[in-house]
Design a protein that fits this description.
The complex is a heterodimer of chains A (416) and B (296).
Chain A lengths: L13 H17 L23 E2 L21 E6 L2 E7 L4 E5 L18 H9 L4 E5 L9 E7 L4 E3 L2 E6 L4 E10 L4 E3 L2 E6 L4 E9 L4 E11 L4 E8 L4 E10 L5 E10 L4 E10 L5 E10 L4 E10 L6 E11 L5 E10 L4 E10 L3 H8 L5 H19 L3 H16 L8
Parallel strand pairs in A: 1-7, 2-6, 5-8, 6-9, 7-10, 8-11, 9-12, 10-13, 11-13, 12-14, 13-15, 14-16, 15-17, 16-18, 17-19, 18-20, 19-21, 20-22
Antiparallel strand pairs in A: 2-3, 4-5
Helix pairs in contact in A: 1-2, 3-4, 4-5
Chain B lengths: L7 E11 L2 E12 L3 E5 L6 H9 L5 E9 L2 E2 L5 H7 L1 E4 L11 H12 L7 H17 L4 H5 L8 H15 L3 E5 L7 H16 L3 E6 L3 H6 L3 E6 L2 E6 L1 H10 L12 H7 L31
Helix pairs in contact in B: 3-4, 4-6, 6-7
Chain lengths: 416, 296
């Protein structure tokens, strides 16, 4: 898709350059993915034409505040990355270090994902022009969020945002990524690594507000240590095709993770989530709740796998995906999977796809609530539990308000 | 806001089907302000269908007949318009509505009734206070009315919650679909007492039930027996007593014991008098009051 020679023009340590070359070779060997591969099933990946995009790092101005309005003011750190270049780093609290290319990030790249997890992950390692590494010192308690804004507004640009978060032992922090972009075509392939040290509590949230022309192929790779706690959330509102592959590796005994997503597809957008809850260590738990709505001609795909390895007894893992279909032309697919190699575990999975519940609507109508208001209340209510679960109350409130706006004038399909 | 208007729900020759099955086969009933009518019948007689069709639940087709409230054609209205016109249905199986509180829903309904375009924060708060006051009246914990509607509530709590909403909304005519099922005797008494107090203030009630127990507290003015989608008998409270003693067998054709039916059937009916007491404080009086005002 891209030339491995591009690696030679990038800055960074010799060791990193060597790893970049190896990653580029792996990516070239992988070739371009196809929807015939299980992991790309239901996706428009065959429509991806790399020739339409040019790899570059021109930088530029910061993006709009959007759902993050006001969050920067109280943030512990703010990083702005625009069109392939870090344009601003501001650290305002103790216990946080922010590294960039050639200045603290190089050795941390690959902490959780030394390669892959797919061809876009390898291209990301090879071609990340503006990697950012956020380290939380051991025992540090950072109460305000650490905010990373990733903005794309150059037409036809292809680039590879990379964020590495290393939460030291028994530290506490929350990192919010904010992805914005204009409506012009662009290809953005972010990869985020979350290393949650033993006993650490890390909150992480990705707020995706891309424009209607953007393709986003994102990877999240995480590693949850002993007695550590990870709460990670996705808010996905835009993009032509926006994919997030989310890998949660429970590698330390006693670790807990919560994985949540709120998504709302409109226009002709496709939102695609692949989740992997991988339990390697015993006595680990993971709870996944993804709730989304598709309106207009939008599409949503959820495919999730809970994998429990043979050496991991006493695991509790849950996976729930629920979809509201708000228009007859909208489409959603939900495919939960379990792969369990230890019998001493508790697992559940559930999924649903359907229109606004006719009984719920009728109940509210029977109280005197007009049809459109009743439907809006039902849709808002549908998202309530997952909004409560997101690791930032501030963002939950602004997403709640955005959903209110989206549903207040809509005319929904209802089951009869 | 003194007003002497009586309101009348009139059901005439109502036929309704679900799928290919005709369930209501010509129902005639009239319920007026301040009157309590009980409709009793065996399983499958069409009791709940009658309640659903009058309120406009999707899934039924009215094939003949009419339903009017003060002369207004109810069947041409959407369910929410029926509620805004003054009808209320207390459901047999109240639906769980995740993430939506009773205060949110009722504040929307009351704001619309008051002519506002959506509730203000103040109206929402007053609705919440009204709900809490009514919850206390029927022994429902305040935190339960704050919860998403009917979510994680027992059957009895859901029924009390229906009574709470009825009392806050103050409709003109309330249809109670087996309000007694799932309620223990104390809860039943509390709910029935609250509803009876509302009837004294002018509420008309159509209480659908299997059992006579609830009627000891609701004290109907008239009792109707529905079998196979038709009202086959009507009478005073003594008709309920006869049903308690003899069951529905006298009305069922395959039963040989038909002699009893003749004696019950001869009690006659005051059906259709339509002259309920004139409530002094009709919340739906013209101009429409905002029930929120009552909290002061």
């Amino acid at each position: 898709m891209f030339s491995p020679d591009l690696v030679d023009a990038l800055d960074g340590s010799d060791a990193l350059t060597k790893r970049r070359r190896a990653a580029a070779e792996r990516a070239v060997a992988s070739g371009q993915p196809s929807f015939t591969e299980e992991v790309w099933r239901y996706t428009p990946i065959d429509d991806l034409d790399p020739a339409l995009y040019a790899f570059a790092a021109p930088g530029g101005a910061a993006g709009p505040a959007g759902l993050m309005d006001g969050v920067d003011d109280g943030a512990a750190a703010v990083v702005r990355i625009t069109n392939g270049a870090v344009v601003d780093v501001s650290v305002r609290a103790e216990g946080i270090r922010v590294g960039t290319l050639g200045d603290g990030a190089d050795d941390l790249i690959g902490t959780v994902a030394p390669e892959g997890p797919d061809v876009f992950g390898d291209w990301n390692l090879a071609l990340a022009t503006a990697p950012v590494a956020v380290s939380i010192d051991p025992n540090a308690v950072v109460t305000a969020p650490i905010v990373v804004h990733v903005h794309t507004d150059v037409e036809g640009l292809a680039w590879f945002p990379r964020l590495v978060v290393v939460a030291g032992r028994t530290s506490q922090a929350t990192v919010i990524e904010h992805h914005t972009g204009g409506d012009t075509p662009a290809l953005v392939c972010p990869l985020t690594e979350l290393s949650v040290g033993d006993g650490a509590h890390l909150g992480h949230l990705t707020v995706q507000e891309l424009g209607s022309g953007a393709w986003q192929i994102a990877n999240l790779c995480s590693d949850v240590g002993r007695d550590a706690n990870l709460r990670t959330g996705q808010v996905a509102m835009g993009g032509a095709y926006a994919r997030a592959r989310i890998g949660i590796d429970m590698t330390g005994r006693g670790g807990h993770s919560e994985i949540d997503a709120v998504y709302f597809g409109r226009g002709s957008s496709t939102l695609d989530f692949r989740t992997f809850q991988t339990h390697v260590a015993p006595h680990t738990t993971s709870d996944l709740l993804f709730k989304g709505a598709v309106d207009d001609h939008a599409r949503a795909v959820y495919t999730g796998l809970i994998r429990i390895e043979a050496d991991a007894p006493h695991v509790v893992a849950n996976q729930t995906n629920r979809n509201l279909k708000l228009s007859p032309n909208a489409w959603a697919e939900s495919v939960p999977n379990l792969e369990i190699e230890n019998s001493d575990v508790q697992c559940s999975h559930a999924s649903s796809i359907g229109p606004v519940d006719a009984d719920q609507r009728f109940y509210l109508e029977s109280r005197g609530v007009p049809t459109d208001v009743a439907e809006a209340l039902v849709v808002r209510g549908f998202f309530d539990e997952v909004l409560d679960a997101l690791p930032s109350e501030e963002i939950s409130a602004s997403v709640r308000q955005r959903i209110d706006e989206l549903v207040s004038d809509a005319d929904f399909a209802v089951a009869q | 806001m003194s007003d002497n208007t009586a309101h009348t729900l009139r059901i005439e020759g109502l036929h309704a089907s679900a799928g290919d099955t005709e369930i209501l086969q010509g129902v005639d009933l009239e319920v007026s302000s301040g009157r309590v009518h009980a409709v009793m019948g065996p399983n499958g007689s069409g009791k709940s269908t009658l309640a659903h069709v009058v309120m406009g639940r999707p899934g039924y087709e009215v094939t003949a007949g009419s339903v009017t409230l003060d002369g207004v054609d109810v069947l041409s209205l959407a369910p929410w318009e029926r509620a805004q016109a003054g009808l209320f249905l207390a459901m047999q199986h109240p639906t769980e509505v995740p993430g939506v509180s009773a205060a949110q829903a009722l504040a929307e309904a009351l704001a619309l009734r008051a002519g506002d375009d959506g509730p203000s924060d103040d109206q929402l708060e007053r609705t919440r206070s009204l709900l809490e006051a009514e919850a206390a009246a029927v022994g429902l914990k305040a935190e339960l009315v704050a919860r998403p509607l009917n979510v994680d509530m027992s059957g009895g709590e859901k029924k009390r919650n229906e009574t709470v909403q009825l009392a806050v909304l103050q409709p003109r005519i309330a249809i109670l679909d087996e309000i007694d099922s799932g309620l223990d005797i104390d809860a039943l008494r509390a709910c029935a007492n609250r509803i009876e107090a509302l009837t004294e203030a002018g509420l008309g009630v159509l209480a659908i039930t299997h059992f006579t127990r609830v009627l000891e507290y609701l004290r109907p003015d008239e009792v109707h027996v529905i079998v196979d989608g038709r009202i086959v008998d009507s009478g005073g409270p003594e008709l309920a007593e006869a049903l308690e003693a003899d069951g529905y067998a006298p009305y069922l054709p395959e039963e040989p014991d038909a002699g009893v039916a003749v004696s019950i059937g001869g009690l006659g009916s005051s059906l259709g008098t339509g002259a309920g007491p004139s409530p002094a404080d009709d919340p739906f009086a013209d101009p429409w009051a905002d029930p929120l005002d009552e909290l002061g």
